[in-house]
Each structure stands twice: as structure tokens, then as C-alpha cells.
Amino acid sequence: MSTQQPRVERADFDRVMVPNYAPASFVPVRGLGSRVWDQAGRELVDLAGGIAVNGLGHCHPALVAALTEQAGKLWHMSNVFTNEPALRLAGKLVDATFAERVFFANSGAEANEAALKLARKVARDRFGDDKYEIISTINSFHGRTVFTVNVAGQPKYSEDFGPRPEGITHVPYNDIAAMEAAISDKTCAVILELIQGESGVLPADPAWVQRVRELCDKHDALLIFDEVQTGVGRTGKLFAYEHYGVIPDVLTAAKSLGGGFPVSAMLTHERWAGHLTAGTHGTTFGGNPLACAVGEAVLDIINTPQTLAGVTEREALLRRKLQELADQYGIFSEVRGQGLLLGAVLAEPWQGRAAEFLAAAEAAGVLVLMAGPNVIRFAPSLIVEPEDINEGLQRFAVAVQRLCEG
């Protein structure tokens, strides 16, 4: 029997897929490190990292080995049982963080869903039915479930899906006075991104984060840090909260945790974890042996002084190259972010044209991201070779020149 698969192409997307995405015109078929190749054999430098997911690039040999080894042992048993990779990964996350307990899921949205459900359960158990309000920030992003998309502060993602869940308030990011006015004894949780990734790569102000911690303590509310995008080495620390000296009650991680394999985690203290007793929350695939084996390999590589220091070194190189482009072409007003999650803010004449830069970059052979219409986002592999940064930015410079001349 022939094992040859039928050829597919980009046009098949429009024929068989739900049109909720608008993918690029080419189809990537192979990746290695920070390079990818399409069906025609064209090579591109990847400075997008699968939207901050491919923390160790494409097809890292340690991840391939971990997945291959586990694939020959055990794929899935359900959470009627536990498994060795899940227990090892959870233990390493506990050892490396503030947390004492871990819940595994499959995506950032699911981890945030678990965190928000935990907060409401803790509040109900301790204080009764009236303590259920959640505070989030304007322009935040926390996932695509009905609950998380409403907790997120971007109405464009939630307004088409019926009545909003009750008890959700949004305040401006980095606004201490607004948070002080919004929080009360009815608040069960405040959920924050330490860098707003999808809305422009906006870092949190340390004084604001510290004040939110104080307000949560005062009002018996859980402080949730959504580190889906900033976690697992992205900012040069294992988790971004380490830069702030503020310990959350709950932290969510995904994206880089699996290095491209779907896995997420909710981390919390033992005193809060105990409120999710058997049967109160669950998942079919969360804690899957394959995902956790890969996640363990990811953590073993990223959570080392060498890798984390390398993130900071690569950040300096990337910032320098972006500043050179800004100086030469006047296209960026600032570069913000931390580690290898950087946003280059388009200068006034280029406002609203981020999508054009993405298209021009792809045509020049480099993959970058948007963070709203005014920001070009860079989230490459945490171990991207300096040569790939240089080559990627040279190609990006070609794209910029074409736009400036066109």
C-alpha cells in the first residue's frame, strides 16, 4: 500500500477550513532552529517564534528525543491515573517557583480558565456567594473561551458571543488610582499580564504591580499573573514576576512551556489549591505524558543560568539592530518590552501600517509579528543564533527600504 499523501496547498484552506484565520499565502513544511522552509523550498528566518511559543526554535534535538522516547512508552491514560512525566514536570515547576501545586491543561486559555475558576471557588468557600467580581485591564488578552475572552479587555473579541458573564470590570493598565477605585471586598481576583503582549508589548510599572498586590491582600482577592506569553524564560528570568519582586497567588503558563507542543499549567499555593477538590475541575488531555515529557525537556534547557543570560544578551543585540533601523529610516518611535519579547512602535507617519510591514518582511524572507496596528513584535527562539538575528534584521531592513521607497 502506498504511503504517499495527497498534495495540499494554501488554496485548500479556503475550501475545507473554518475561515476564522487568514493565513499567509505560503505553507511552511519544515523548520530547524530559527529557519523555516515552505513548500517551494524557500527559506525564511523566524523571528516570530510561533507567537512566543517556539522557545527553543524548531525541532530542537532534545525535544525531538523526549517526544520520541515517550511516544514509544505511553501516550494517554486520562486523569483517572497520573503519569511519570507529569509528576516530574510539576515537581520541577514547584522547585523553580513560588508555587506548591500545579494543574496541567493544554492552552493558555484553559490555564486562565482554571485560575479564574479557582479564584471564584476560593472566594465562595471562604466568604460566600457575593464575592465573585474579577478585575482585569483594558486591552488585556487572556484567551478565547467565552469566560476568558470576556475577562480580557478587548470587546472586539467578545461582543459577538452573547451576554457577558457578570462581575467583570476592566481598568486602565498601569493606573493605580483606577485600580484603587475598582477593587472592593466583593473582588475575588485581579488578573494581570506583566507585559501586555497582544496590545502593543506594554510592560507593567513596578509600583503599580506592588500596589495591586497590596490591594489584593487588603481585600482578600487572589492576584493572578497571566504569564502565558512572558513565562518560561521569555524575559530573561524563568518567569517575569521575578523582575518585580511580587509573588502572585496564581500564575498561568503555556506557549514556551511546551516548545511548540500543546501544554499549559496553572501554578498556585497549597492553601488555595485545596479548594479544587476532586471533581471540581478537570480536563481530558491536561497532563498528557507526551506533552509533559516535552515540557520537562524544555524546562531543563531553559531554566539554566546560561540560557537565561543568553536571552538578555540576544535582547541587547536585537535592540541595537532595531535602533539602527530606527535611526536610518525613522520608522520606530521606541522599542519596548523585555528579553525576547520586544515591540517596535511605529513612528507617526507609519501608524496603522503594521500589517504592511509583516507582508513586506515575509516577502523579504523573515517572519515577524504584529501587536496591534502600530507595533511590530519580535518573539524569536530564546536560543536564536546571533547570526540569525543579524540575517533576519538585514532582511527586515530590505522590507523597510521597499516600503519607504514604495
UniProtKB/TrEMBL annotation:
<feature type="binding site">
    <location>
        <begin position="108"/>
        <end position="109"/>
    </location>
    <ligand>
        <name>pyridoxal 5'-phosphate</name>
    </ligand>
</feature>
<dbReference type="GO" id="GO:0005737">
    <property type="term" value="C:cytoplasm"/>
</dbReference>
<comment type="similarity">
    <text>Belongs to the class-III pyridoxal-phosphate-dependent aminotransferase family. ArgD subfamily.</text>
</comment>
<protein>
    <recommendedName>
        <fullName>Acetylornithine aminotransferase</fullName>
        <ecNumber>2.6.1.11</ecNumber>
    </recommendedName>
</protein>
<keyword id="KW-0028">Amino-acid biosynthesis</keyword>
<feature type="binding site">
    <location>
        <position position="283"/>
    </location>
    <ligand>
        <name>N(2)-acetyl-L-ornithine</name>
    </ligand>
</feature>
<feature type="modified residue" description="N6-(pyridoxal phosphate)lysine">
    <location>
        <position position="255"/>
    </location>
</feature>
<keyword id="KW-0032">Aminotransferase</keyword>
<feature type="binding site">
    <location>
        <begin position="226"/>
        <end position="229"/>
    </location>
    <ligand>
        <name>pyridoxal 5'-phosphate</name>
    </ligand>
</feature>
<feature type="binding site">
    <location>
        <position position="144"/>
    </location>
    <ligand>
        <name>N(2)-acetyl-L-ornithine</name>
    </ligand>
</feature>
<dbReference type="InterPro" id="IPR017652">
    <property type="entry name" value="Ac/SucOrn_transaminase_bac"/>
</dbReference>
<dbReference type="InterPro" id="IPR015421">
    <property type="entry name" value="PyrdxlP-dep_Trfase_major"/>
</dbReference>
<feature type="binding site">
    <location>
        <position position="284"/>
    </location>
    <ligand>
        <name>pyridoxal 5'-phosphate</name>
    </ligand>
</feature>
<dbReference type="InterPro" id="IPR005814">
    <property type="entry name" value="Aminotrans_3"/>
</dbReference>
<dbReference type="InterPro" id="IPR050103">
    <property type="entry name" value="Class-III_PLP-dep_AT"/>
</dbReference>
<keyword id="KW-0055">Arginine biosynthesis</keyword>
<dbReference type="GO" id="GO:0003992">
    <property type="term" value="F:N2-acetyl-L-ornithine:2-oxoglutarate 5-aminotransferase activity"/>
</dbReference>
<dbReference type="GO" id="GO:0030170">
    <property type="term" value="F:pyridoxal phosphate binding"/>
</dbReference>
<comment type="pathway">
    <text>Amino-acid biosynthesis; L-arginine biosynthesis; N(2)-acetyl-L-ornithine from L-glutamate: step 4/4.</text>
</comment>
<keyword id="KW-0663">Pyridoxal phosphate</keyword>
<keyword id="KW-0808">Transferase</keyword>
<keyword id="KW-0963">Cytoplasm</keyword>
<dbReference type="InterPro" id="IPR004636">
    <property type="entry name" value="AcOrn/SuccOrn_fam"/>
</dbReference>
<dbReference type="Pfam" id="PF00202">
    <property type="entry name" value="Aminotran_3"/>
</dbReference>
<dbReference type="GO" id="GO:0042802">
    <property type="term" value="F:identical protein binding"/>
</dbReference>
<dbReference type="InterPro" id="IPR015422">
    <property type="entry name" value="PyrdxlP-dep_Trfase_small"/>
</dbReference>
<dbReference type="InterPro" id="IPR049704">
    <property type="entry name" value="Aminotrans_3_PPA_site"/>
</dbReference>
<dbReference type="GO" id="GO:0006526">
    <property type="term" value="P:L-arginine biosynthetic process"/>
</dbReference>
<dbReference type="InterPro" id="IPR015424">
    <property type="entry name" value="PyrdxlP-dep_Trfase"/>
</dbReference>
<comment type="subunit">
    <text>Homodimer.</text>
</comment>
<feature type="binding site">
    <location>
        <position position="141"/>
    </location>
    <ligand>
        <name>pyridoxal 5'-phosphate</name>
    </ligand>
</feature>
